[in-house]
Amino acid sequence: MSLDFNTLEEFSTLLAAAPTEDGAARQAARDRNEQLTKPPGALGRLEDLAIWYGAWRGTGRPAITSPQVIVFAGNHGVAARGVSAFPPEVTMQMVANFEHGGAAVNQLSKVFGARMDVHALDLDRPTADFTASPAMDEAEVIAALRCGWEAVAAGTDLLVTGEMGIGNTTSAAAIAMALFGGAAGDWTGRGTGVDDAGLDIKTQVVAEGVARHAGVSGLEALRCLGGREIAAMAGAIARARVLRIPVILDGFICSAAAACLENAVPGALDHCVAGHVSAEPGHSKVLNKIGKDPLLALGMRLGEGSGAALAMGIIKGAVACHSGMATFAEAGVSEG
Ligand SMILES: Cc1cc2ncn([C@H]3O[C@H](COP(=O)(O)O)[C@@H](O)[C@H]3O)c2cc1C
Ligand SMILES: O=C(O)c1cccnc1
After folding, report:
1. Which HAMAP family does the UniProt entry name for this protein (predicted)?
2. Predicted confidence (pLDDT) per residue in 111-168, tens digit
3. Which residues pair with 75 in a beta bridge?
4. Strands in the chain per DSSP E
5. Which residue of 5, 51, 60, 335 has the fewest CB atoms within a 10 Å radius of its CB?
6. Which class is domain 8-62+322-331?
7. ipTM attached to this prediction
8. Ligand 2 within 6 A of 307 CB?
9. Cα–Cα nearest to 219, from 5, 69, 18, 56
């Protein structure tokens, strides 16, 4: 099967044909877990995470040696509507900051031993204001999906996708409302910290955008209401699925990108866990809709992949215990 796509339909077909987890590896990981020197279940959710990780990697005794964090950046036409507390030029300035190692996600990637890559997508060409027309045409959304698809490094064994794009919590709210219904106010939060007047404008923009593209779902929601960095995250998450690389989802924007995949192909996020729940009020609702229980709840509201990068420590810890601990037989410890 060709691993390329030129239309959203071809992308969807590739995603639908992507592998599922390895049942034999899951069983081998379960068997090993039962033999480790601890009371049954004593590592709580870490045990499930290690088994899940092994099932996707195809081994009952996995290791994590090459985690990758990818930050995608894009600019948004709706930013001109006054929906963010910061001006659009911050997107480009933060890309420079990522490249110089100065952002939170740089530090967290370093702490957890991940390589970090940054991809800026046509920053000088913001998407169209989605209240007036689709944010992207099909060629544009395909180019963004492909950027994400190709950004996943050969040999990566744990992936975090993050984003930078002033205005993108507005885009994420519009996607969530299009996919899951409800009122604009249910999905719209303060993002970088808009005041009450800004929140009113933002809620209005979300409502207008969803009304303008009434009835869109899945990848069409991504095209009409998303952004280039949002589509690129979706492309990277889909590629990881094809390569059986487990993914840690980040905050509201990343989860909205992922939700488009799940909406297009149910089960498309089985290789993903939610790294954290952010303070953006729509995030917990999106996680609920995609059936993901977040690993961390630290009141973070940064994006960039920062919450997911922090959660890499949990997955690495889970896998280290699972694969490195002695069994009762090896350690000569009496079983209960
Ligand atoms: C300095 C700075 C660094 C950031 N890093 C991530 N974001 C986050 O804030 C933006 C979304 O919020 P809104 O929709 O309100 O614009 C995204 O770029 C997101 O990644 C940042 C925002 C700022 C200002
Ligand atoms: O949930 C997020 O990822 C988020 C929230 C606010 C601003 N930027 C990102």
Report:
1. CobT
2. 999 999 999 999 999 999 999 999 999 999 999 999 999 999 999 999 999 999 999 9
3. none
4. 67-73, 115-120, 158-164, 247-249, 272-274
5. 335
6. mainly alpha
7. 0.99
8. no
9. 5
If we measure between CA atoms, which residue out of 159, 101, 92, 142 comes closest to residue 120? 92
For ligand 1, pick from 86, 119, 202 the residue to mutate: most ligand atoms within 8 Å of CB: 86
Give the Cα-Cα-Cα angle 172, 235, 141 (nearest 5 degrees).
70
Tokens standing for 277?
């729940």
3-state secondary structure (DSSP) of residue 35 = helix
How many whole angstroms from 254 Cα to the centroid of ligand 1?
13
Rounded Cα–Cα distance for residues 63 and 244 (Å) = 14
Contact 119, 147 (CB under 8 A): yes
Instruction: Give the domain 67-317 fold.
Output: Rossmann fold (3.40.50)
Asked whether 192 lines ligand 2 (CB < 6 A), one says: yes
* Separation CA 146–CA 158 (nearest Å): 19
Q: Is 89 a catalytic residue?
A: no
CA of residue 11 to ligand 1 center, whole Å: 29
In this structure, how many other beta carbons lie within 10 angstroms of the beta carbon of residue 125?
12
Q: Which tokens hold the place of 84?
A: 């963010």
Phi, psi torsion values for 291, nearest 5 degrees: 70, 40
pLDDT tens per residue, range 222-239: 999 999 999 999 999 999
Q: In what order do the strands lie in the sheet with 247-249?
A: 115-120, 67-73, 158-164, 247-249, 272-274
Q: Is the CB of 169 under 6 A from ligand 2?
A: yes
Closest atom of ligand 1 to 79 CA is: 16
Q: Yes or no: say if 114 and 67 are a contact pair by the CB < 8 Å rule.
A: yes
Look at the pTM and tell me if it is higher than 0.90.
yes
Is the CB of 163 inside a 6 Å radius of any atom of ligand 2?
Answer: no
Distances (CA, A) of 56 to 19, 158, 186, 268: 9, 10, 34, 13
- Whether residue 122 contacts residue 74, with contact meaning beta carbons closer than 8 Å, is answered with yes
Q: Is the CB of 198 under 6 A from ligand 1?
A: no
Residue 116 contacts residue 71 (beta carbons within 8 Å):
yes
So where are the chain's domains?
8-62+322-331, 67-317
φ/ψ of 260, rounded to 5, equals: -65, -40
